[in-house]
Amino acid sequence: MKNQYILRATASERPCFVCSKFSSVVLTSADNSNEDWFYVCKSHLNDANFCSRNGGASPRPASPASPKPPVAKNTDAKPESNSVSDLLSGIGTGIWNTWKGNTKSDDEQAKEKDKQNEDAKKTTSAQPDSPTPPPAASTPPLKPTPVTYILHRDFYYLREREVQKRKAKKDAAARLQSMQFPEVPKTIPGSLAKPN
């Protein structure tokens, strides 16, 4: 028995091996022998104390990542503050601006921001994208290798022990079937027979 398991989904739910919550995910032996399988929650698969991930779903080598366009930052905005004095001064300037005559509505301010964002998008889209090399047509597509999970030694010991118990139970049942017990006598022995 190897300490390698593959993740499979099932139609029915059963209790998790670790926490007894119902789950529809099963870890089975990686060698497809069906020697060992058990239900497990998906959350346990990310737990380093339960198992570690081995292998990956991507068979192709990683392509160099294309750089993402820089995100336009709003340099006009003041960083937010949680102090009461900043809050009161902000309220005061809003009142001051409306009394003074600077009455820009929220719609006008939103339109100005949209214009600034459009201008920023135009400048980033004007830059040519880096050319990507065409994929090689001669290489056949590779099958993705399934992700294998390696259990932590304590959990693996529990799985080994359970498999051994199952085998011992099966062997005991087979021995019981093959045993020949003596039959019950169908006739009375002569010494116990009643005299006439």
TrEMBL record:
Higher taxonomy: Eukaryota, Fungi, Fungi incertae sedis, Mucoromycota, Mucoromycotina
Mind telling me which Pfam families this protein's record contains? Vfa1 (PF08432)
Could you state one GO cellular component term attached to this entry? endosome
Q: Which InterPro entries does UniProt cross-reference here?
A: Vfa1 (IPR013640)
Indicate, by first and last residue, each region the UniProt record lists as having compositional bias (Basic and acidic residues): 103-122
Mind listing the GO biological process terms from this record?
Answer: vacuolar transport
Region annotation (Disordered) ranges: 55-146, 168-196
Write the protein's name.
Answer: VPS4-associated protein 1
Q: Where do Pro residues bias regions lie?
A: 61-70, 130-144
Residue intervals passing through the bilayer: none
